[in-house]
Amino acid sequence: MAEMNTNPDIIETEQSVTLSIPRRNLAIEAAGEIEQLCIILKQTMKEDADYLGISGVVSRIKFLSNKVMDVVCDEIKSTGEIAEELAE
User: Fold this and answer.
1) Which pTM value belongs to this model?
2) Of 14, 59, 65, 84, which one's alpha carbon is 20 to 30 angstroms from that of 6?
3) What is the C-alpha to C-alpha distance for residues 32 and 36, in angstroms, rounded to an integer?
4) Distance (Å, whole) CA 62 – CA 6
């Protein structure tokens, strides 16, 4: 017997997931904050031996944050397009 979902903010079926607007907004807010933290970190880092490595990690985190926002907000991009961008 399938487990019953008791959370009205996220409804999952075999083929889709539906988020409530408040839950979607939380995801957008969190992704936006991650992006802002990345920007601040890059701006405050000093150019030393570790700068390029840390900068690369920060850039990837920012990219992933943007993809999360695409997943929950972008009505134009297909899931396949977003998946291809993630695979790059």
Assistant:
1) 0.73
2) 65
3) 6
4) 33
